[in-house]
Amino acid sequence: MHVIDAYLDACVADLDRAVVDGLPAATSVFFGGGTPSLLPADALMRVLDHVPRDDGAEVTVECNPDTVTPGLLRTYRAKGVNRLSFGVQSMVPHVLQSLGRTHDRANVETSVREARDAGFESFNLDLIYGAVAESLDDWRATVDAALAVEPPHISAYGLTVEPGTPLADDPARHPDDDDQADKYVAADRALAAAGLDCYEISNWARPGFECRHNLLYWSQGEYLGIGCAAHSHRAGTRWWNVRTPARYIDAVANGTSPTAASEHLDEGDRRIEGLQLALRTRGGVPRGALPDDLGDLVERRGERVVLTVRGRLLANEVALRLS
Predict the structure, then answer these.
(1) Paired residues of 304 in beta bridges
(2) I want to staple 103 with a disulfide (CB 3.0 to 4.6 A). Which of 65, 95, 146, 313 is the partner?
(3) Is 0.90 topped by the overall pTM?
(4) 152 closest CA partner among 56, 60, 83, 102
(5) What is the architecture, at CATH level 2, of domain 24-217?
(6) pLDDT tens-digit series, residues 204-217
(7) What residue ranges of the chain are covered by domains with CATH 3.30.750.200?
(8) CA–CA distance from 143 to each of 21, 154, 239, 251 (Å)?
């Protein structure tokens, strides 16, 4: 059997086992962790068919603009997908090339148009800033081009260096902190002016289009991850699956747990983590959770304290002051 078919079969079997064990109906479902849109739409939707979910649950599929077709989108929509997340990264050709991406601005514009034609009102454009080939003007051009298609949601993440990647092995290509800060501020200004509110440090949305699945993470909600390297959380315990498809397939086929490792947070650690996550959102944290000497890094809104734009740039440092 082809490894893709075997992997999807394992995902379905793992889900069915979870349902037997009492898996509750999901309020949101997110297909990510790569490029799910590379799979035949019917094959991916076979997995979705085995997910118990509430009426009106948010169901998102990550898509590469190069792999989107009208037929694929129609199948998604017919099967219950109601949100898409396009991996755009940049709208500037030489920046896309430096990131190893093959699509272009026209692909993105076509994908968005086809998504709307298929009935999708909710979708995200995922952007990345900080590539060494990207000037501030390049980044502004990307943000402007993204806003031109009038998305209801934009995510913008600074390029990060992950150990063991080609980027990590090439210091000349590592992002510059000051450059990334300038680009973050430029993006926030442009997105706010276009009516997208920053509801989490790296996420902006029009009212009503916030990603419910991500809000679940940021509020320490419970979730189940299916597939290799997927993470799960329940009652303060987090666990994650084996990293390779072959090991995941074997574990499920043998009736053993695909869990690679786990960790449990005690009550104190869980409280601090909850504050750290809340600090990243527009709801902020209770006034007593931070000292009064943080100057223009925070602002007080009633009984809550939220990060200013400058505070968002230094969020990790502010988080160290939580108590």
Answers:
(1) 286, 301
(2) 65
(3) yes
(4) 83
(5) 2-Layer Sandwich (3.30)
(6) 999 999 999 999 99
(7) 24-217
(8) 45, 9, 36, 44
